[in-house]
Amino acid sequence: DQQVKQNSPSLSVQEGRISILNCDYTNSMFDYFLWYKKYPAEGPTFLISISSIKDKNEDGRFTVFLNKSAKHLSLHIVPSQPGDSAVYFCAANIPARQLTFGSGTQLTVLP
Amino acid sequence: DTEVTQTPKHLVMGMTNKKSLKCEQHMGHRAMYWYKQKAKKPPELMFVYSYEKLSINESVPSRFSPECPNSSLLNLHLHALQPEDSALYLCASSQDPTGGVTGELFFGEGSRLTVL
After folding, report:
1. What is the pLDDT of residues A69-108, one digit of tens each?
2. SS3 state at A100
3. Nearest CB partner across the interface for B99, out of A43, A51, A98
């Protein structure tokens, strides 16, 4: 049973436009959410996070939105750049438990 | 120093070989992890060490043997692996062994293992 789902395996966006990556979860005990970015043959790197007590967190070009009632979060990248092309993993945390990862979305930003 | 370093970056081994993967962190983190990742899949947790003691083994076959010599080092000993064990092996660390509030993990770049 996948508790964290990323239903879009891939997404292509034109450079300069907005990229929106989506993530849904089923476990209402999750109270912290993270996005990781992964380039081929490298380990995932932390990108941005959000606590369940917030509905938005912004860091430069990256903004994460959380809709608790819908159990949905999204990562917005604007403007998208070719260097943003990577696999993006959504992850969720219950305190004192291990992170649960989604299956990832491959983002391709076209020049 | 906010790095987790893993060696080797690439490893090719036969099914009868014995090899080891190594991981090091100097962030003072008290939890260290081994994950396995296949292409286009999320990282799968294998082992967790908390304060240098094995706290989680996710039913990993005994041909994978973890070792934590001290709080900064984590090894994964490999013996009699199968071709299906070929994957990217990721080491990670976290400040709080219980996962803490955020559960944030710091990953190394991984060791790409190929079993022939």
Report:
1. 999 999 999 999 999 999 999 999 887 778 889 999 999 9
2. strand
3. A98
